Automatic annotation (TrEMBL), chain A:
Pfam families: ABC_tran, BCA_ABC_TP_C. It comes from the Bacteria. It comes from Geothermobacter hydrogeniphilus. The lineage of its organism: Bacteria, Pseudomonadati, Thermodesulfobacteriota, Desulfuromonadia, Desulfuromonadales. This is High-affinity branched-chain amino acid ABC transporter ATP-binding protein LivG. Residues 2-249 form the ABC transporter domain.
UniProtKB/TrEMBL annotation, chain B:
It comes from the Bacteria. Pfam families: BPD_transp_2. It is found in: Cell membrane. Keywords: Cell membrane, Membrane, Transmembrane, Transmembrane helix. It is a multi-pass membrane protein. The chain crosses the membrane at residues 12-33, 45-64, 71-90, 96-115, 122-140, 171-188, 220-243, 255-281, 293-315. InterPro entries: ABC_transp_permease, LivM-like. The keyword Cell membrane applies. One of its GO terms (cellular component) is plasma membrane. One of its GO terms (molecular function) is branched-chain amino acid transmembrane transporter activity. This is Branched-chain amino acid ABC transporter permease.
Length: 254, 332
């Protein structure tokens, strides 16, 4: 569904991504792992249009993504979460999730100002869908609260709900459990498993190995901008290059 | 649910509609209790400012941008209507609409390049634009009347009914102000409005949700310019005399301060901001002389302690405390 072909990104001559190739198959969970500075975030930013790759192509369902602005990529059905939460603290939980349905809410200022009956009807339907999503992510009782007062774990779940509410074709998750305790991590893991069960295509960037090995169908390992391994969790776990990238780093820091 | 809970829920559900109805009722009855032309003159001026501030609040509070040049659009509307009706003898209502269209075009042409900027740069660009417009008003004597102003602008009328005294103007101006409030309230409660709120919150996140950030900013800029233009036209027809002083950069900063006092992103706050800043100099004499100084001080203090604006800041602070207290009580 998502195909990266020879994607490179250089920052002032320094390669952050070096000819990365891999595919994200439909209905599967692909995990992207690698040590700090491996280029995982750069890759997500290239896919979502925040950065433009120096060379290479990124195709999504036969559409070239390189060169498109972020909002156009989002409208194709690619949703994402952010490593450092990007919620709207002054909006309520419900409204935050509703922003995930912006693509379907209409774009005309004039129509919105006139509040025509068809828009009111659509608005009601969007609200129902948002409430449904909140229910799925266990946030139903917090719908009316301003996001600012939520605990960190709840905020992470709100962002997950916002990314999934529109049932996008592909969801990019940038470290969904970073900074969470074991219980909260387990809860998010459950939710991701449920998404996977529902056939949602996911690209998951994560440090938490236990989580990755538990839910990924395919693991892609980046190191210093290069894709050094690709395969099932078991294959990757026993790959000597991967061990070196991780263990070598551990030895260096030890 | 008990009867009391049902009533409270009904009020909560229809809070916007009920507030609009209440305000409309109060405004319809207001001239019956207050017939002092001076007071009505002040509230009429507030109505004109409300129209501009509502539009500007959408731009500052929702699109998350800054403009220190909206008095220019206000002035273009006023001079546009004055020139169209007096110099060219055109009928006032179509002229008002035509001028608003022209101002929209100007805003579009100005907005496309300047809205690539942000923060201080955008503030400077809009300020500069305002100075240009103000200078043209001062210098182009043959057309604008220069520093001595533009007299003899006709009153507006519908059929044979002429809006020529304060009570009649009260109904005219507040109808427009209420319409502006209503349109803005509809907008912010729509999906488009949520997209704009997202844009004000975080541009990257908004774009990731499918908001065309550049386009949205330009659209709201043009919209706010049209609101200001219509307010300008009304201003010209209401006072029948205009001069460049009303549209200088201090007028623009006053408008921005009204938005900040009312609270960014608060449509109802626009009413309070426009009201307070118009009435304060009347209430406190010191204000009259040191107006710009005091306004500057107010702006700095609010931005330091309540960066989201006075009304919004206080509301959010109280709401968040209240919710947290409720959670604590539920936990214990």
């Amino acid at each position: 569904m998502l195909h990266l072909d020879e994607v490179s990104k250089k920052f002032g001559g320094l390669p952050a991504l070096d000819r990365v190739c891999f595919s994200v198959p439909r209905g599967r969970v692909t995990a992207l792992i690698g040590p700090n500075g491996a280029g995982k975030s750069t890759l997500i930013n290239c896919v979502t249009g925040v950065l433009e790759p120096t060379s290479g192509s990124i195709r999504f369902a036969a559409q070239q993504l390189v060169g498109r602005p972020p909002h156009a990529i989002a409208r194709l059905g690619i949703a994402r979460t952010f490593q450092n939460l990007k919620l709207f603290p002054r909006l309520s939980v419900l409204d935050n999730v509703l922003t995930g349905l912006t693509c379907e809410a209409g774009r005309s200022l004039t129509m919105a100002m006139l509040r025509l009956p068809y828009l009111r009807h659509r608005e009601r339907q969007l609200k129902l869908r948002a409430l449904e999503a909140l229910d799925r992510f266990g946030l139903a009782d917090k719908a009316r609260l301003p996001v600012a007062v939520l605990a960190y774990g709840d905020k992470k779940r709100v962002e997950l709900a916002r990314a999934c509410v529109a049932e996008p074709q592909l969801v990019l998750l940038d470290e969904p459990v970073a900074g969470l305790n074991a219980d909260e991590t387990a809860a998010i893991g459950e939710q991701l498993k449920r998404l996977r069960g529902a056939g949602q295509t996911l690209l998951l960037v994560e440090h938490d190995m236990e989580l990755v090995m538990g839910i990924a169908d395919q693991v892609v390992v980046l190191d210093s901008g290069r894709c050094i391994a690709r395969g099932t969790p078991d294959e990757v776990r026993s790959n000597p290059l991967v061990l070196e990238a991780y263990l070598g780093q551990m030895e260096a820091t030890a | 649910m008990t009867a009391k809970e049902k009533i409270l829920y009904f009020i909560y559900l229809h809070r916007t509609g009920l507030t609009v109805t209440g305000l409309t009722l109060a405004l319809v009855l207001f001239p019956l209790f207050e017939d002092n032309p001076y007071t009505l003159g002040l509230t009429n001026l507030i109505a004109i400012y409300v129209i501009i501030v509502v539009g500007l609040n959408l731009f500052i509070g929702y699109a998350g941008q800054i403009s220190l040049g909206h008095a220019a659009f206000f002035g273009l509307g006023a001079y546009g209507s004055a020139i169209a009706t007096v110099t060219f003898g055109l009928p006032a209502w179509p002229a008002m609409a035509g001028v608003a269209l022209l101002v929209a075009l100007v805003a579009l042409l100005v907005g496309v390049p300047t809205l690539r900027l942000s923060g201080h740069y955008l503030a400077m660009a809009t300020l500069g634009g305002n100075i240009v417009v103000h200078t043209v008003m001062l210098q182009w004597d043959q057309v604008t009347g220069g520093p001595s102003g533009f007299p003899g602008i006709p009153f507006l009328s519908i059929g044979g009914f002429v809006f020529d005294d304060e009570v009649r103007l009260h109904y005219l101006l507040w109808s427009f102000a209420l319409l502006a409030l209503l349109l803005a309230l509809n907008l912010v409660r729509s999906g488009v409005g949520r997209g704009l709120a997202a844009l004000a919150g975080d541009e990257t996140a908004a774009a990731a949700l499918g908001v065309d950030t550049r386009r949205a900013k330009i659209k709201v800029f043009v919209l706010s310019a049209v609101f200001a233009s219509i307010a300008g036209s009304l201003f010209a027809h209401c006072y029948s005399f205009i001069s460049p002083d009303s549209f200088d950069i201090f007028a623009s900063t006053d408008l921005a301060i009204m938005v900040v006092v009312g609270g960014m992103g608060s449509i109802w706050g626009s009413l309070i901001g426009a009201g307070l800043l118009t009435l304060l100099p009347e209430w406190i004499d010191v204000f009259e002389n040191y107006k710009d100084l005091v306004h500057g001080l107010v702006l700095v203090l609010i931005l330091m302690f309540l960066p989201r604006g006075l009304m919004t800041g206080l509301y959010e602070m109280i709401r968040n405390r209240w919710v947290l207290k409720g959670q604590k009580n539920a936990a214990s």
